[in-house]
Amino acid sequence: MGMVSQEAIKQLEVLMEEVEQPLKTTFQNVHNGYLAETLVRFLKAREWNVTKAHKMLVDCLNWRVQNEIDNILAKPILPTNFYRAVRDSQLLGVSGYSREGLPVFAIGAGLSTYDKASVHYYVQSHIQINEYRDRVLLPSASKKYGRPITTCVKVLDMTGLKLSALNQIKLLTLITTIDDLNYPEKTNTYYIVNVPYIFSACWKVVKPLLQERTRKKVQVLQGCGRDELLKIMDYASLPHFCKREGSGSSRNSESGSENCFSLDHPFHQQLYNYIKQQSLICEPVEPIKQGSFHVDVPEPPADRTELAKTIQSEFNKFGNANRLSDSLDGLRINGA
Question: Which residue pairs, CB below 8 angstroms and at least 24 apart, start in 3-7?
Fold first, then answer.
């Protein structure tokens, strides 16, 4: 890291020493003892501009305080059967760790429907997984490997991606906005697998619109990506949809203990039990309340809004082309 970078870190650290309570407390929950690494994340997100990184970080801390994010891991989604429905429609889990100790997050981007609960539950669930990653998984991995581990890798399965994904654009924009503004630079690499034509066509248009920093993180792999992923992780850590070429992703493709999306998978069992335990510690007298934990979502940045519009436009073009093709096929059949 160069002298300019070190100086930027020092400047931002001095600025952060001046924040008052309760921002100081929530900042401790954000950096978890890895102060320099956290400052670097926000500096990278703002192209090493100290003033902009400071504003971003303070805005993040204010968002955390205003929305009680420090307490979100004590707010279980109840009842369990309802949470299972959330998990079955928001396909996300941890399949293992890379050889460098980074958690491997598996995401069923193509088959997630987000249709079993309100937006608030999906946002709550997403933030809880973020917080569990940052407060439990990453500190544990850092201790195990004897060095700071502050990022993860993500494997996105595009199996089943359809035009109906347009219905999810608004929710996905909310979630990515939360991540961009409050959990920047937490993903080391995005691996995209089981890519259908609709994604390939859209990716050609979207890729140039991404920031160079983001583009470098994205790797679109052939097929299920197994061979490439085995270069960075053991077979046991592969998401279930990467273990067999052509197997694709399915909510029922493996048993609960193998399917990392399932509530029966060890990761989700540990996460859910942790949240229930935290709720008993924080609220030992009052009964646990049911209902979603509402979180204010900041307005998405202009580039994020434009990106969403571009994706929607490309999907619509693809749909119109398909409908035109179907109409022509119908004319040919009728005219035969």
Answer: 4/48, 5/40, 5/43, 5/48
Spatial contact of 50 and 219, defined as CB atoms under 8 Å apart: no
Answer yes or no: is pLDDT of 319 > 50. Answer: yes
CB-count exposure of residue 235 (10 Å: 0-12, 13-18, 19+)? exposed
Pull the structure tokens for residue 155.
């494997």
Query: HSE-up of 206 (CA within 13 Å, CB side)?
Result: 21
Cα–Cα dist 300/274, whole Å: 31
> What is d(CA 230, CA 201) in angstroms, rounded to the nearest whole number?
27
Strands in the chain per DSSP E: 92-97, 103-107, 152-157, 187-193, 218-220
d(CA 154, CA 103): 8
Structural domains in the chain? 3-66 (1.10.8), 72-279 (3.40.525.10)
Find tokens 């299920």 and name the residue: 224
Q: pTM for this structure? A: 0.87
64 in Cβ contact with 26 (< 8 Å): yes
Give, rounded to a whole angstrom, the gap between the first and last alpha carbons of the chain: 69
Q: What digits encode the pLDDT tens for the residues 12-23? A: 999 999 999 999
Give the pLDDT confidence score for residue 101 in this predicted structure: 97
Query: Percent helix, strand, coil in the chain (nearest 5)?
Result: 55, 10, 35
CA dist., res. 136 & res. 130, Å (int): 10
Average pLDDT of span 117-128: 95
Cβ neighbours for 126, distance < 8 A, ≥ 6 positions apart: 90, 92, 175, 178
Q: Are strands 92-97 and 187-193 parallel, antiparallel or unpaired?
A: unpaired
Report whether the peptide linkage leading into residue 79 is cis, meaning its omega lies within 30 degrees of zero. Answer: yes
pLDDT in tens, 136-188: 999 999 999 999 999 999 999 999 987 666 678 888 888 999 999 999 999 99
